Amino acid sequence: MDLSAVRGFHFLHPLWLLALPPLLALAAWGSRRRSAHDGTWARLVDEPLLPLLRLSGAGRGRSPWLLVCLAWTLAVLALASPTWERAPSAGYRAPAAWVLLLDLSPSMAASDLLPDRATRARFAIADLLSAAQDARVALVAFAGESYTVTPLTTDVSTVRTLLQALSPSLMPEAGHQLAPALAEAWQLLRGGNAGRGEVIVLSDGFDDEQRTLLAAASLAQQGVRIHVVGIGTATGAPERDASGEFLRDESGDILVTRMRTAELERLAAAGHGRFVTLSGLPSLIAALHAAPSHSIDASLSPDDTRLATWRNDGVWLLPALLVLTALVARKGWI
What we know:
The protein is α/β, with parallel strands linked by helices. The chain has eleven helices and twelve strands.
């Protein structure tokens, strides 16, 4: 005999057992009433004549009280839901969480990608939003500082609407600081109960490399992967300032901004993610869909997709209950 099953035996709805005492009281009352009925006539009629006074078919052996008690007991036990083992059932899995970091530094206005890098980055984000399915998506814009455009949400249409207006000219402070944007992404994931998620950086490079790589490694330790979509080309294009004029160096030559491929690759490696250019975006989307989604709830295993619940075994009492009910309902018994 399996002792673990015995130790696990209990009732899912034990309050139904309170219906058993009324059964005992009713059975005692019925028994006394039947005895009292016969006892009254026994005091007035001689015992040899007593059977002749009973109606046909009203013998002692036809009382349904025993069957009624058994049926009542089985019904109460079935409603109390006895159980002794668990059964697997479908569990909840948190939806995927993607935080998109859009670089809006002045270099993103370069036109080596037509019409410019920022516009092509917005097109790439639009593709990511179309592929999000049931994933929650957040959008952060960064330059000298980072700004949350939308927190984690499944309303991708709102994210798409806000995305259209984003451009480098909207940023109040020029710069190329990615580390604060990574910190903002972590806060959004934690605030949305999605401690494990995916961060997608769309950028042509950044200036705070040491801080950014440390932040990426820290997020990777927390289970957050950082993917990078490189925006730009190796040949580059002249960089413009806020007024649209070409930037020049100290010697008066026009500054050419190029995509910093090496540091973007180092960022993806530190964040345990992938580095792709715009042409490799479909492969990144496929990898995002293949990645498991996890909740920040540490009590759940990352691979848990099913839950074990107590099985209601009271249903096995129903066939016997139906048979007893049919016997009690026989003609002449009720």
